[in-house]
Amino acid sequence: MKVLIQWAGGFDTPGPSNHLLKALIEDMISFGIEVHLIQGRIKKINEEIPPDLKKLKGFTYNTLGRKDISKSNFIMRYLEEIYYSLKSVLYWKKTKDVDIVFVRSCPTSIYSIILSKIFLRKPVLYGVQDMFPGSAVNSGVIKNKLIAKLFYSTQKLAYKCSDAITVISDDMKTKVVEQGVDEKKIHPIPNWFDDRSVQEVDWSDNRFVKKYNLSSDKFYVQYAGTMGYVFDYEMVLNVAEKLSDYKNIEFHMIGQGSQKEIFMKETKKRGLNNILFFPLEPQHMVSHVYSACSICLIPLKRGIIGNSVPSKAGLLMACNRTIVNSVDEDSNYYKMFNDNDIGISKSNNSPSEVAQSIIDLYNDRVKCDTLAKNGKKFGEKYYSRSVNTKKFMEVFNLINRSN
């Protein structure tokens, strides 16, 4: 079997799902599946292809240059992405003996799906990481109702034209079913952590701790990841403000994103000295970064959870860290943490409840450690690489047998 992966992103640009695709390709090859990757090249920060992938027999790739357009210029980004899809067709024609096309989600996925149906005439697996335009509408990026309606229509067409769809949560599956898709076509596969490499790092060996000379006497509330439109920085500000009298509780915000600058300005404006900002760390530092916190705060804006899921949850579980979520209380994600005692979920309408949860964990370290240990066991069972990449192999085989 040979799978063509169409990806609008590229390994050169740091992203929260890059490690997922790398692991999936490695495991596809180990399962005897040939892979040809077509990717974009935008930021040119990392290497074009990770060295480990280059060595794999059965893996080939093409890289197409793309323009780096600001996220605030949505229209130009959208048009440039369509152009990228059209350019990709030239490389599809050169790729021989493809059995399945795997399209990774982006705002313009519909064009790649339709073009692959026309030019390759092969079954398409649509891998949905972030539902468009749902997350953009709920985060306020798309405000025009007419434009939103148009994008919802194109998204429905993408679902209809796909032979199978993967989503990363049951909440996301519910959203897709609500748009008229047969649930038999949908396969929930969570974003995983790599159980071969991600693990808790002892404080004395932690390179992030040493780099910033962190004190083991403090209680660190961390967010590490993209500070974009789905990230509720106002929740962090409000919670930090309520906990400003707790001198041993410190908030660490690690990473980049479109909302970081305004977040930093508002922090300074409010005079919050308990929020510290750190730059993005490279991928190989993941275990060190997550192991450097006491707990992790995952603050999501209202309405986001059904359209997107924080991929860091599994990574934090692997690093034996307790997660506090501020998220929609009617979601399966919210209930999963509270029902299984693997962390704490509170309403993203209530900064007071989130703040109180942090205080409770600060005062009760036994409870904090117990939730972390429960989460680690839960993560190994449901969020590990060894469990979830096999689910992709099953979907590929199912599609191949059906065609």
Rough shape? Answer: globular
The CATH architecture designation of the largest domain is 3-Layer(aba) Sandwich
> How many independent structural domains?
2
Reported by name, the CATH topology of the largest domain is Rossmann fold
- Sheet with the most strands? 7 strands, parallel
Count of runs of 4 or more consecutive helical residues: 16
Structural class: alpha/beta
How would you describe this protein?
The protein has 403 residues and is α/β, with parallel strands linked by helices. The protein folds into 2 domains: 210 residues, Rossmann fold, CATH 3.40.50.2000; 180 residues, Rossmann fold (3-Layer(aba) Sandwich). The protein has 16 helices and 13 strands. It has a 7-stranded parallel sheet, with helices on both faces. A 6-stranded parallel sheet has the order 10-9-8-11-12-13, with helices on both faces. Helix 7 links the parallel strand 6 and strand 7. The longest helix has 19 residues. The chain is globular. The two termini are 12 Å apart. The model has no long low-confidence stretch (mean pLDDT 93).
SSE topology sketch:
Elements: E1 2-6, H1 18-30, E2 34-41, H2 51-54, E3 59-65, H3 74-92, E4 100-104, H4 109-119, E5 124-127, H5 134-138, H6 145-161, E6 164-167, H7 170-178, E7 186-188, H8 207-211, E8 219-224, H9 233-242, E9 249-254, H10 260-270, E10 275-278, H11 286-290, E11 295-299, H12 312-318, E12 322-327, H13 332-339, E13 344-347, H14 351-363, H15 365-382, H16 385-402
Parallel strand pairs: 1-2, 1-4, 2-3, 4-5, 5-6, 6-7, 8-9, 8-11, 9-10, 11-12, 12-13
